[in-house]
Amino acid sequence: QVQLEESGGGLVQAGDSLRLSCVASGRDFGNYAMGWFRQVPGKEREFVSALNWKGGATAYADSVKGRFTISRDNAKNTVYLQMDNLKPEDTAVYYCARAGGNQIVRFDFQFDYWGQGTQVTVSS
Does pLDDT of 85 surpass 90? Predict the structure, then answer.
């Protein structure tokens, strides 16, 4: 069983930065692509970013491109999401997830393990 635990959320002002971390339990972390999603109450969960098993390929939602950076440290079983120039519309619960394979995917049904989420609130 794989467990994912996010951390690093909080309350910040517009223009500030946050770095989210997600630590995975279990073996074979380095064999799977990882992703970040976010969800606002009353709305569907949306894709934010993903990277492949080695971290050499990344993908971003248009809304965060140029402001967010995803990375991973396979030796630490950790994936990160660096969020810069945060905007109020980035306010959401952020979830990390492990994909079913080693390549980048974007749809939530393609991820088989999920964390509990961490709240990010950006004030204007």
Answer: yes
